[in-house]
Automatic annotation (TrEMBL):
The keyword RNA-binding does not apply. Pfam families: DUF4271. Keywords: Membrane, Transmembrane, Transmembrane helix. InterPro entries: DUF4271. It comes from Bacteroides acidifaciens. This is DUF4271 domain-containing protein. The chain crosses the membrane at residues 61-78, 111-131, 151-174, 186-207, 213-231, 243-263.
Amino acid sequence: MIGDTIGSSHTDTLLLFQQGQFASAKADSDSLQLAVTHATQEAGSGFEGTPIPYSPRTDDAVSLTLLACFFLSSIALSRGKKFLSQQVKDFVLHRERASIFDSSTAADMRYLLVLVLQTCVLAGITFFNYFHDTSPALMSHVSPLLLLGIYVGFCLAYFLLKWSLYMFLGWVFFDKNRTNMWLESYSALIYYAGFALFPFVLFLVYFDLSLTNLIIIGSIILIFAKILMFYKWIKLFFHQFSELFLLIVYFCALEIIPCLLLYQGMIRMNNILLIKF
């Protein structure tokens, strides 16, 4: 009798356990089915994630451009070091001699053209970062690669126009030797401005410098370059104290105003791109 009672108790316990397991499995199955149904409804309703904002440091095109600039400048420095150092000495000491363009080899001229192009590219990346901070809507409407190409093109056109203007004014007002000396000095400043811009652009892109620091450091580099230009102008074209005022006026007209026109031209181009796209 006692054995029958114990057996019946074990049977009831086993049935209850099996029922609990079945209820638990059914609850898990219902929960999984509910989760799948909910996910399917969300996917069907078109919910989108938050898009990641564009950043130049994550752009492969910017990284490849900086890497190419590094290799090209390294090659130019290793193979044209003597030529570049001679230009610095001539700029500082103001030596009267024949044109260095006439005595340079074709390889030297290729390296110098590469350095000029590098300076224009780095200046274009600087403007690209500046407008990325000041006009974020522009980056979402226009391809960043197109914008970078436009800014680099602006800087290259600025350099070529300045070069043509200097050649024309030198042909009109000065002798050939003095004009060539100024063009060589101007070219030397362009080359070494590229070397100064390279670490600045690296910090700008990969360390996310603030807009304030970008403007301050960029202005320091620009002002220092203009001071060196004015120094060379005094050495080349200043003969009497009465000519100093005219020299300052010409310097502002040829060096300060074109920079403002370049900036305004980029602003207008940005507005056109925003309207078109």
